[in-house]
Amino acid sequence: MPAPYVVALDPGHGGSPSSDPTVLWDPGVVAGRLIEKDITLDLAFRLKALLEKERVKVVMTRTTDRYLEISERWNLVHAAKARLFISLHVNAFDGDPSINGLTVFYPRAESQAFAQHLEAGLAAALQRFGVPDDGVAPKPELWVHSDIPTATVEPAFVSNPHEAALLTHADFRDAIAGGLYQGLLLADPQIDATYQQMLRVEQVRAARLQAEQAAAAAGAARIRRWELGGLVVAALLLVMIGLRARRRSVRARRRSGRRGRRRPYAARDGHVRPPVRDLSEVKK
Ligand SMILES: [Zn+2]
Structure pTM? Predict the structure, then answer.
């Protein structure tokens, strides 16, 4: 089986205030009931589900509401040997709610094409929701240690009323995940190639298993036929033995019967006479 393709997803921000003041927390942007750290985690799970259907191994930097330093996040991605990396966020712009649209940032030129594929996937998926495409932009201060295609995705603005309203809907969040999924498939054809390879290996395995099962079933049937044949032979032998025994006992009875009929004549007449054949003989 080919090794699974590994994609790392980073739900941005995370953590809640607790009684322990030394424990850090970071909600990201907060707009009414919309909190960035919760949206990013939800988006990551939606994208993870789509990728797992494609047999991609998805590594998440966090799966719960917890605080993580950027360096901790990168260490997890690196340790997982991920081949592509997406950090999920939502955008906000203080003071101007009209600012809207999707953007994908990349740390260095090596990741630009990856960012463009994600942008293309997102733009196609979010067009019907009226989310404009603001394109890709370099942000070299993000993910400075990254050595794989890396992108920070900002699919919408929580500070824009239209996009904030959209973000409360599951179908919009699914569209974001779907757009990123399409972008990932575009970014590296190896994702789908690995999936197809896995399917082929499974088909071969299934066919081999089926052939083995069929051979085992045929073998079992052959044994059953032999057993049945043996039973028939045994039954025939028993019948033959029974018949011979009966024949012998009939012969024996016949012999003893003859002797039995002879004795009365011998006793009455004092000499042996042949047995009486018919009534006319008796009358004489
Ligand atoms: Zn953010």
Answer: 0.78
